[in-house]
Design goal:
The chain has 28 helices and 8 strands. The protein is an alpha/beta fold.
Length: 544
């Protein structure tokens, strides 16, 4: 059970942390807000926190029921005296209407003849008739409180969480034991924002994101207005660059849908984040600019940002050659090792039916992406949570901010290189994994799925899979953590006579996906034992 004042303690923790960590970066208004909120009586702090976590900013006092606050009216007055709220009623008819239920509006404004209208239509009637008495009646129907200082509070939350989508519920989930996070260093050197200009740029980005979510996205002019409002990309702030490029790709994709290929192309050309180059090639082809499309494909082959880009180039290049009347390039199609298997259908998933079948040949586990990723996560746990500047800025991160980016490997390359030497000694490697498994049980890690990583599975895997095979598998995952942590086979079989084999199960009508095929090609190249098993049901075989 949570303490009665859990939310207030968490709020104070956030405000105190940001005040200390970002001292010197906060504006005068933000410093005044901090002093004001920490200076009001506890009941007023409770009310501010309660209300600030709600969507509205204007509230009727009679509707506020918080048993732990002795007097809502006194708390409201204390907030007003500290410029953290206003108790005067709003004079905007729209804000007033939102605070009342439909029956209340009908009764107060004598709109019995409009009962059949929907809520929104009823509000339109009131707004359109523009009667001053409507405003007076609604204002006088209750006491009011309107929060102030929410812009400053937003800055504090951004500094703490590093984004504007996490909120105080993160504290609750931690306190209830739903999530357990690793302990890592957070100080001025590791904070996400190192300058006020950087902080303001991220605020600007999130403001644009809010506007984008609210506008009519079928209006081309509004899309361009949001794009023009985005902050400039900063080469010294890769996190901001990724955010801006992601938004730019989203806007460009919407322009595509609206039939504006030239405008979409211009935006994609400003973005470095996939799939911007793939979309450029497709748009160039749509515009019959086939030579430019081929040139861009050649650039992608020279400097691929992800395997997906190479896969796309391999697929699209023959079509470009055909359009340009070039000789078709020679292509070797990879065919994964495949077998067929007939089983009896049941209510269970096809993977589990297959697992039960293969259990007669040894120990078989359903693992999908959990085993290889999980062992890697245990093996490099301390490196994932190493004190790298600017990647940990609040206690609710399951991974460093750069985990799925190329910078993760680049910034920790020396640590990873040194750690991989331990794979030369299988006993040392196994001991490290087991030690981490025992001491970090249940703690969040972006690579570890505790639900699937049992002691029995881990024991067999560390004994049967050679250390060099682990190294080969780990190297590919670390090359692209965003994309290579998926697509691994469903099952792993440890035959009674030794060794291991990874098995991808495909039920009737199911096909190997692109990311799975790329893993299988990698397995074949490095002699990792695997196969694809296509399942047919016994009833289908009989009927055939």
């Amino acid at each position: 059970m949570l303490e009665e004042d859990y939310y207030l303690a968490n709020f104070r923790s956030l405000v105190d942390f940001v005040g200390k960590t970002y001292h010197g970066l906060l504006s005068d208004a933000e410093v005044r807000w901090q002093r004001a909120i920490l200076g009001v009586p506890e009941s007023a702090q409770r009310l501010y926190v309660r209300l600030s976590n709600r969507r509205a900013t204007v509230f009727r006092v009679s509707k506020l029921k918080y048993p732990e606050i002795d007097s809502i009216a006194n708390a409201s007055l204390a907030l007003e005296n500290s410029h953290l709220a206003q108790t005067a009623p709003p004079d905007d008819i729209g804000l007033l209407l939102v605070a009342f239920t439909k029956p209340e509006i009908i009764k107060l404004l004598d709109l019995k003849n409009h009962r059949q209208l929907s809520r929104s239509d009823l509000e339109d009637v009131v707004i359109e008739r523009q009667q001053v008495t409507d405003i007076d009646i609604l204002q006088q129907a209750d006491q009011w409180i309107t929060l102030a200082g929410l812009e400053q509070y937003t800055v504090f939350k951004l500094c703490f969480f590093g984004n504007c989508y996490q909120d105080m519920s993160e504290f609750v989930l931690r306190d209830l034991g739903v999530f357990e996070y690793e302990q890592y260093r957070i100080d001025k050197h590791s904070r996400v924002f190192q300058s006020r200009a950087q902080l303001d740029a991220h605020l600007q980005y999130f403001a644009c994101a809010d506007v984008f979510s609210e506008i009519d996205q079928t209006q081309v002019a509004l899309l361009h207005e949001v794009h023009r409002s985005l902050p400039d990309r900063n080469p010294n702030d890769p996190h901001l660059t990724r955010r801006v490029d992601r938004m730019r790709n989203t806007i460009a994709r919407q322009l595509e849908r609206l039939g504006e290929p030239e405008q979409a192309l211009a935006l994609y050309q400003l973005s470095e984040k996939p799939p911007s180059r793939e979309r450029q090639v497709r748009l160039l082809m749509k515009l019959s600019q086939f030579k430019d499309a081929l040139t861009l494909c050649e650039q992608i082959k020279l400097t691929p940002m992800a395997d997906e880009e190479l896969q796309f180039v391999d697929t699209i290049t023959p079509k470009l050659y055909k359009q340009l009347d070039f000789p078709a390039p020679r292509k070797t199609n990879f065919r994964p090792s495949t077998t067929k298997l007939t089983l009896t259908q049941s209510d269970a998933r096809v993977e589990f039916i297959a697992k039960d079948f293969y259990a007669q040949f040894g120990e078989c586990f359903y693992v999908e992406n959990a085993l290889i990723n999980g062992v890697l996560g245990l093996f490099i746990w301390d490196i994932i949570f190493a004190p790298v500047d600017g990647v940990f800025y609040n206690p609710f991160q399951s991974a460093p901010a750069d985990f799925y980016e190329q910078e993760f490997f680049e910034k920790r390359s020396s640590l990873l290189k040194q750690r991989f030497k331990e794979l030369e000694d299988p006993l040392h490697f196994s001991a490290r994994v087991w030690e981490c498994y025992e001491h970090r049980q249940g703690v969040m890690n972006p690579l570890v799925n505790w639900h699937y990583l049992s002691e029995e599975l881990l024991s067999l895997a560390l004994i049967r899979i050679p250390a060099m095979d682990w190294k080969i598998l780990f190297q590919r995952i670390l090359k692209d953590l965003r994309n290579h942590t998926s697509g691994l086979p469903d099952l792993i079989l440890f035959p009674t006579d030794g060794s291991y084999e990874m098995i991808e199960i495909k039920g009737p009508g199911d096909a190997v996906q692109k990311n799975q095929r790329r893993w299988m090609e990698y397995f074949s190249k490095h002699r990792i034992p695997y196969r694809v098993v296509h399942i047919r049901w016994a009833s289908q075989t009989t009927s055939a």
